Amino acid sequence: MSYDFNADDVLEMAEQLETNGGKFYRTAADSTSDPSNKAFLLELAAMEDQHEKTFVAMRAELSEKEKESTIFDPNGEAGMYLRALADTRVFFEKEIDVTSMKAILKSARLMSHP
Q: Checking CA distances to 54, which of 15, 17, 62, 103 falls within 20 to 30 Å?
């Protein structure tokens, strides 16, 4: 089954991706003992938080027309699908290799660009 997503659905997924990204970087920061790496990872988490706020603001500006469902979806399956996609494809709870910054950033890249 294919879905046509409206702007609200897509921005909601974008918010979730940024939330997951922030959690990923904070978890990685908590797992590293190097102060400069920790600071860098927390800076990346803060960037993800800022991106999330941008998507929240964009979503708040949508018209009712842009929020209307594009398909008959009485059970809200399209939104559930997008949330599941965001949670499983990007920054989802996965073992993070914190042996080096290279390994952490490689994990982040692989999760955000499967």
A: 103
The answer to whether the beta carbons of residues 41 and 104 sit under 8 Å apart is: yes
Instruction: Give the span between the Cα atoms of 112 and 103, in whole angstroms.
Output: 14
Give start and end residues of each alpha helix (H) in 3-100: 7-31, 35-60, 64-67, 77-89
pLDDT digits (tens, 9 = 90+) for 60-94: 999 988 777 666 666 766 667 666 666 665 555 55
Condensed to tens digits (0 to 9), the pLDDT of residues 4-26 reads 778 888 898 889 889 988 988 99
Domain spans, the chain? 7-63+75-112
How far is it, in rounded angstroms, from Cα 85 to Cα 88? 5
Residue 94 and residue 84: Cα distance in Å, rounded? 15
